[in-house]
Amino acid sequence: MSIQKQAYNALEAAVGAKYISDDPAICEGYRSGPAGYENGLGYERVMCTIPGAVVLPKNTEEVQKIVKICNRYKVPYVPYSTGFYGPRSHCHVENELLIDLKRLNSFEIDEKHFYIVVGSGVIYSPIQQEAMNKGAYVIIGGGGAQASAIANLIGDGWSPLSHRIGLPHRRILGTELVLPDGELVKMGSLADGADPFWGDGPGPDLRGILRGFTGLRGCLGIVTKMAIKTLPFQPEPLVPTGIAPNTALALPEKRVKWVNFQMPSKAAQVKAMFEIGKAEIAGAVTKVPLFWRAIAKAECKEEFWEIWGKETAESIKNFFIVRVLLIGFTSEEQMQYDENVLTDIMTELGGIARPTKPSDESWIKNADSAGMWLMCGSYVSVDYIIESLSQATQHGESYAELKRKYTPPLMPDNGDPGWFQSFELGHQGYSEFLVYWDHREDTTGVDHFYLETAKMNIKNRFYTSLLGPHQPLYLTGPMYGPNYHEWLLKVKDAFDPLWVCHPPVPLAHDEFVDRAPWMKEIKDWESPKKLPMPKW
Amino acid sequence: MRKDEMFDTKKTKVALDVTNLSNFVYDMQHCIKCKGCYWVEHTYMPGVNFSVRCPSNLWNDFDSYGAFGKMRIGLAVEEGKLQWTDKLLEIIYADPLCGACDVGCKRNLDLEIGLTLEALRIKAVKDGAGPMPAHKKIAKNIATKHNQFGSPHENRKKWITKDLKVAEKADMVYFVGCSASYVNPEIARATAKVLNASGNKFMLMPDEWCCGNTLYSVGMVDEARELAKRNVAAVKKTGAKTLVTSCAEGYRMWKVDYPKLLNISTSELGFNVVHLIEVADEAIQKGKLKLNKSVDVRFTYHDSCGVSRLSDPWTPWKGERGWMGMVSPALKRRRGTKGLYTQSRNILNAIPGAKFVEMPRIRENAFCCGAGRGVKEAFPDLAKFSANHRLDEVKSVSAEVLVSACPWCKSNFGQAVKENGDSVKVMDIAEIISAAL
Question: Most buried residue, A423, A437, A527, B101, by most Cβ within 10 Å?
Fold first, then answer.
């Protein structure tokens, strides 16, 4: 496998021989699986392949040249920043070019105007440290400290700290986007050459095309640069302590503190989040799956299962935690005020403060998503939604109910309804449902569960984030549009008439269902006999 | 746990045996590309500069040069889907096996990355593809001259000067190693001086041979095992209770890889293996080694891999893997937590008059000098690149002197400094202790 020789030569001329290769050993290193986010499932086995060649551009101009060459020679390509987002960010068709963006690692920080400008290869944890060095902070999304900030912000970008900072797209202040044909588009205030201070540019706001709710996984161009809002933080240092694997940030307790509360009921748990938001206190408010606590306690996989094995459906059902991060943004007095208000709320609702370490193991600087793989080996967040606080909890519970049918292969979790939390000071509730399995086993049930969640959401009239590239477009589009699928395909055709940019996304999951025999039994929706896209 | 919620997973036999790559299929199958092997641990992430801990993948940006790429490649090799080529050998051997990837992975996933990379080299040799030509030359030197440089064997003890007291018989034997014996005699002399000053009576091996570090590191496991047998027997014959090294690579070899090769635990060697760092630290704590002389420099410390993240003792393990990948009997993972991080800093903070400053990447996150485990000989470009990258970090903290605990680090850094015309002075920890006596 390799790409056409003429195309390869043109690409080599664009980036230099050192930064392109079609050697089999180089290409094998870019295999999506067998493990990783959503890997080890049918989608990865059926839809993914290794690249025909890999190219490493250094800047936006080189990316434009590469994309134009791909259009000229009809070479399909996929943009790739860190490769962490599983099969959907890897090659799907034979003889595809993988554009590895890790060398786009420029970084600027504007201390006075509170923003940073980064390239696609820059990950979160260095950004957070640089921001903190200047008295600011950013949110490290649930994708983890090792996620490319750009990739994460055009797809996800939320964490418990979203309680105060809010939705990720509000923090995108300017974007440089190489369209599928190589043309450069600047969004936000960058569009008219101004500083990146305002995300909405003149004319229609293209951020919807950029990310929608959870992004289009590289099928509508390549973001090469982004200006991201930073926000003022408190001034005391957060000091790294310990030796791996037991490391943490020691917190200056008068300015930063996690507090865990045990609540008497689900209603009290939700009410507490609502009241904390209403009082406009705290930097983060969240409830995480109980087994995350077991991960944190366990020294190894075997110990995790020893700890987790002692839990029962009853113990999970009656465990209601609210985890609150207090931050004295302006002063110790403000921190004290927040804590007093929090105490009042919890006293009224019967919340009992549990002993909490004066440290941060995850979320401020090290969003520890990689720990999700410890207990089983495979993981995917099967949905993440933004609803009201009260509805967000119902979302998780409905998933937990459906999941029972698919356990195993899914990990036994005693009906835990997943992760939910407050967004934007309680104005929204966030729910994320995570599933785990061992990909050495028969994973047909996971493939089915993933798709059945879309049907469940449609049936129950729940919103879902996993539209477009994540589920069959002909299943979700008519139900959420009613012509969302037609709209998205027209956008795709308009921006990428040759479908060179990461084909067959956004019809990849439709094609997977068509190609995987074990998916036929659950296909009960209409779709064209021939999917409306060029065949690669 | 309800049985109906679990698969009845068939158990498979597995062992921490690097001579068979199939033992590590589970590990290769479970890499998730989080790149914990590549980035500095995020809690300690210093910022956009010095954010990477993998020399190989910083030298060559393609994913295949990172451990996450090599796990995928290793699996393809094991499954017979990828043939040995010059490029593949470069990917496998342009790597100092510094252990940064291993401790990074064990932060979250507990995969045996380091052992997998060793097993991959052993397979390369077994398949007749490896090692690299430069390694074969070293192997020949060791076989004929008992040292890796091909120097005359009779010159091994030429470093000894008249002012040093070397006992005929003692409880402690100083294993000098090839580098300090032939290339960096100042380290051997300083080590002997420190041992003398701390009242530690020591002897030398009657006939010291190479430890075989390079042989083991490049996958020549049979040759390395023969040396291990010979050397362990030779130490036992001396009656020494403790073997001390001044070389981080030698320390790792004796403490970890000899037991690995001989299928015994470190505690079953029959004698203790220590580095000078441990001896000096203990002597300072007990007041036996007095550092009185002022050393007026601003210096920093480079954690050599062999005395840090690679030095957890070895215990053989074999058992079964079952549901959710759990293993039995219990496996105590080696996560690099037993490194001599504290001892070395105790010493450095005790040097009178000197200002000790830390670099951004320290301890388990340190960036390897790039010289070890066959890299300097086969891929001098990579060794030079790594040294220069680390020296940039030395300069970022305005250090005048760079201290390490391994002659290979000293040589590599020293050569880079010389070629660059830098003003940084490179010293071994034995030398700076000695300077304070």
Answer: B101
